[in-house]
UniProtKB/TrEMBL annotation:
<dbReference type="InterPro" id="IPR031335">
    <property type="entry name" value="Glyco_hydro_63_C"/>
</dbReference>
<dbReference type="InterPro" id="IPR031631">
    <property type="entry name" value="Glyco_hydro_63N"/>
</dbReference>
<dbReference type="GO" id="GO:0004573">
    <property type="term" value="F:Glc3Man9GlcNAc2 oligosaccharide glucosidase activity"/>
</dbReference>
<feature type="domain" description="Glycosyl hydrolase family 63 N-terminal">
    <location>
        <begin position="39"/>
        <end position="265"/>
    </location>
</feature>
<keyword id="KW-0472">Membrane</keyword>
<dbReference type="InterPro" id="IPR008928">
    <property type="entry name" value="6-hairpin_glycosidase_sf"/>
</dbReference>
<dbReference type="Pfam" id="PF03200">
    <property type="entry name" value="Glyco_hydro_63"/>
</dbReference>
<dbReference type="InterPro" id="IPR038518">
    <property type="entry name" value="Glyco_hydro_63N_sf"/>
</dbReference>
<comment type="similarity">
    <text>Belongs to the glycosyl hydrolase 63 family.</text>
</comment>
<dbReference type="InterPro" id="IPR004888">
    <property type="entry name" value="Glycoside_hydrolase_63"/>
</dbReference>
<feature type="signal peptide">
    <location>
        <begin position="1"/>
        <end position="27"/>
    </location>
</feature>
<protein>
    <recommendedName>
        <fullName>Mannosyl-oligosaccharide glucosidase</fullName>
        <ecNumber>3.2.1.106</ecNumber>
    </recommendedName>
</protein>
<keyword id="KW-0256">Endoplasmic reticulum</keyword>
<keyword id="KW-1133">Transmembrane helix</keyword>
<dbReference type="GO" id="GO:0005789">
    <property type="term" value="C:endoplasmic reticulum membrane"/>
</dbReference>
<dbReference type="GO" id="GO:0009311">
    <property type="term" value="P:oligosaccharide metabolic process"/>
</dbReference>
<dbReference type="GO" id="GO:0006487">
    <property type="term" value="P:protein N-linked glycosylation"/>
</dbReference>
Length: 810
């Protein structure tokens, strides 16, 4: 046999082997997806509510909680809690939470003089995603009367096909004594029961004649059939219904003898069939009751005793696992840091939501959107005003969110940062969320930067910000998460049988099964390529027309969606840019993101043996790195800068030192031995520039625009950029090189400053914040910002290098 024929036989053998492996891998992936869907089906996936439960099914069963104090007539409506709002509570959120098993949330409500605890627990088993239980407890605060009167409403709604009714409904009764049971059925959930238990706690006896018609020691249930599009507006419908009840009560008893508030603010007891069911309880003092969803296909029916037992088990398991994954490292060893770290991470994954609905998109492809003429921003604004956005979809998205009260929806560039801690905890969950995002991609490769799906989501967004444009990009941070997944695959490549991996298998099935992991990447790879080349096409900058000197005439990039005041698409909205805007601009942050993106997709291509693709991406990689220096480095300012075209139609650098200057470094494109790195470190550690005791400023303290106008990205400290900085400093500190000692010192100090900043503000206010003041360290802007601010959990878990620094100094 000749060498050529032997080679041909070998190739045929490999092809046959691959043909056998692919169906096997596909079957493994299908099995993993089935298991993932079952364990992730139910959750508090309505993060815009203080407590709202739903499955990951487009139109299905949903539940939610409302409560208020009923001791006077004036405050009830203002203090009726349902949707998360800013500045109305003393703190709220998940103390411990695991998306696969459940956890505990605490809500501190000073206006209603009560603390609410919600414990949510999953019970796996059966064909329809298992069962779950929620325990709802109320504890009067220290300043409350022991006889504090509270009304609590649990509700269930049903969208789509199916049925839901109150079992044994008695419309003649004055309320339900004992448990309330709803029976339902849908194609996706099968048969199920929802039990709202009688619970524990005293009930007020008002002594008013109206009590005989509606005794408050019973549970009131009101059922109704309402238009499906109105189901999310439960609170508004409740208020309208209560007003009707008040309009009946007041004339009946007169203004001289009105029923007390606890009696007035009640629903009509009318249990029946319908797609909306309100279940109301009125308590005096502390209370507790359970809501239990029992799937008809589950092996056993869940009881309150089961819930009690499982709450303890879930809490113990969470604490143990958290200590293994995110245990804070020195100097953050005190117990208070454990509580802080658990809270931030729990609120990050406790904020994961499932969204379904249509979205507003302008697909006019107006020529003005090319933004290629001088004054383009005015032409684009005119085009936006004359073009009508269309409703597209419906679409679905499973995602974490930046902030429950203010941004309860998916944001593309935030999501990459959200998932960096999540992938350490649950790789399969992370991959599922990434897949959900890429399912939103259109045939060109575009994903809308802000996912406002459905009327409920739109109700939180001003109309001028609702429309999405298919030429608008957003930083491709999901590629960072895929890189992290590859890092984890590499780490276990030679040790797939490790004890830790086996223990983590329920969270990392695609890490423990290499063929399944590769099949996931093969499925995702065409979508990643499509988005990558969409970026290269739609966000390309103009190098050639202006006779710029650069290694490559193609590797320059410009954000579309530019106005004189903002580049919202960049994520760094009001950061100073060249004035006036010019179609010849080149943005250093965008070419840096493209470099990161290129290296990520090149690495995937290597993994999948896509040799031609890998070679092509390697050429782009080299050209991008070379062009960053050729087009964006200023010898005069000793920093990286945006570029524009001056009055003489020549290349000109526009330098405002800040986060923009760091982007090649932040995205890992500045080599540890680079002559530019020393200048980057100079900028980072200069107290008159970026360094503050609370983290790196977004804009230099010496810049003319520092703390001006909106002051959004013009000085405040932001956690995601600081996380990238501390991560890159750690990389340099762990490698031999001319800047190792200096990087170690900066890493140690910056890490300590960032953790203390977020911790001290959390301790004082009960919240993580969107950004932090570089002069005081106080949290500011949006509160309960447990999206990317939760990156501090990863920073705490990073290694302590202070010992290495001391040894180097010695």
């Amino acid at each position: 046999m000749t060498r050529e024929s032997r080679h041909g036989t070998l190739l045929k053998g490999l092809a046959c082997l691959l043909a056998l492996q692919l169906p096997l891998a596909s079957a493994q992936v299908a099995e993993i997806e089935k298991a993932t869907n079952a364990s992730l089906l139910w959750g508090p996936y309505r993060p815009n509510l203080y407590f709202g439960v739903r499955p990951r099914i487009p139109k299905s069963l949903m539940g939610g909680l409302m409560w208020t104090r009923v001791e006077d007539y004036q405050s009830v409506q203002n203090n009726f809690r349902h949707t998360c709002e800013q500045h109305e509570l003393d703190g709220y959120g998940w103390d411990e939470y695991d998306v696969r098993s459940g956890g505990r949330q605490t809500i501190h409500d000073p206006a209603n003089k009560i603390d609410i605890t919600t414990e949510f627990i999953k019970f796996p088993g059966g064909e329809h995603g298992g069962s779950w239980g929620a325990r709802i407890k109320g504890t009067p605060r220290d300043d409350a009367s022991p006889s504090l009167r509270s009304t609590v409403i649990w509700y269930n709604t049903l969208e789509g096909l199916g049925s839901l009714e109150v079992a044994g409904a008695d419309t003649e009764a004055t309320g339900v004594e004992g448990d309330v049971v709803l029976k339902g059925q849908t194609n996706e959930l099968g048969d199920f029961d929802i039990t709202v238990t009688e619970g524990k706690g005293k009930h007020p006896h008002t002594g008013h004649p109206s009590y005989d018609d509606k005794p408050l020691d019973r549970t009131l249930v009101h059922s109704g059939q309402v238009p499906e599009e109105a189901l999310w507006q439960v609170k508004a419908m409740l208020f309208a219904h209560m007003k009707g009840q008040i309009d009946v009560l007041v004339p009946k008893y007169g203004e001289d003898n009105p029923p007390p508030p606890a009696q007035v603010y009640t629903i009509q007891h009318l249990p029946s069939k319908g797609n909306m069911h309100l279940v109301q309880k009125v308590f005096e003092g502390a209370f507790e009751f359970d809501v239990i969803f029992s799937s008809g296909s589950a092996p056993t029916k869940i009881t309150s005793d089961d819930l009690t037992e499982q709450i303890g088990s879930v809490t113990s398991a969470f604490s143990s696992r958290f200590a293994n994954i995110f245990k804070p490292q020195p100097p953050f060893l005190k117990e208070r840091y454990d509580e802080f770290s658990k809270s931030l991470f729990s609120n990050l994954i406790g904020g994961i939501g499932y969204f379904f609905g249509d979205s507003r998109v302008d697909r006019s492809y107006d020529p003005a959107y090319e933004e290629d003429s001088e004054g383009f921003w005015e032409e684009a604004a005119e085009a936006r005003s004359r073009n009508q956005a269309q409703l597209e979809g419906p679409s679905e998205l499973f995602t974490a969110i930046p902030s429950r009260p203010f941004f309860p929806r998916g944001f593309l560039w935030d999501e990459g940062f959200h998932l960096l801690p999540v992938i350490d905890w649950d790789a399969d969950l992370t991959l599922d969320i990434i897949k959900s995002w890429f399912k939103l991609m259109d045939e060109d490769g575009w994903i809308g930067r802000e996912q406002i799906l459905g009327a409920e989501a739109r109700s939180k967004v001003p109309e001028e910000f609702q429309v999405q444009y298919p030429h608008y990009a957003n930083p491709p941070t999901l590629f960072m998460v895929i890189t992290s997944f590859l890092d984890k695959l590499d780490a276990i490549k030679t040790d797939t049988s490790s004890e830790k991996l086996q223990q983590e298998k329920s969270y990392s099935m695609q890490l423990s099964n290499r063929e399944a992991a590769l099949q996931y990447l093969r499925t995702l790879y065409p979508l990643l390529k499509r988005q990558y080349f969409w970026f290269r096409k739609t966000q390309a900058g103009n190098i050639k027309s202006y006779d710029r000197e650069a290694f490559s005439m193609k590797e320059g990039y410009r954000w579309r969606g530019r106005t004189p005041q903002h580049i919202l698409t960049s994520g760094l909205d009001d950061y100073p840019r060249a004035q006036p805007p010019h179609p010849g601009e080149l943005h250093v942050d965008l070419i840096s993101w493209m470099g990161m993106m290129t290296r990520a997709i090149k690495r995937i291509a290597v993994y999948l043996d896509e040799e031609d693709d890998a070679a092509e991406f390697a050429k782009y990689d080299e050209a991008i790195v070379r062009n960053i220096d050729d087009l964006h480095w200023s010898d005069k300012a000793k920093t990286y800068c945006d570029a524009t075209i001056d009055d003489y139609e020549e290349h000109s650098l526009f330098c405002h030192k800040g986060y923009m200057s760091l982007f090649p470094f932040l995205t890992g494109l500045v080599d540890k031995d680079s002559k530019r790195l020393g200048a980057v470190l100079d900028l980072i550690e200069d107290e008159e520039e970026l360094w503050s005791p609370y983290g790196l400023r977004s804009l230099s303290k010496s810049d003319e625009f520092y703390h001006t106008e909106e002051d959004y990205w013009r000085g405040p400290v932001w956690m995601p950029i600081n996380y990238l900085a501390v991560s890159q400093l750690l990389n340099i500190a762990q490698q031999k090189g001319p800047h190792q000692t200096r990087a170690t010192q900066l890493y140690t100090e910056l890490r300590k400053n960032l953790v203390n900043t977020v911790y001290e503000s959390w301790k004082e206010t009960g919240f993580a914040w969107e950004q932090y003041n570089p002069e005081t360290g106080k949290g500011q802007r949006t509160q309960h910002f447990t999206g990317w601010t939760s990156l501090v959990v990863k920073i705490m878990a990073m290694p302590d290098l202070s010992g290495e620094r001391v040894r180097d100094e010695l």
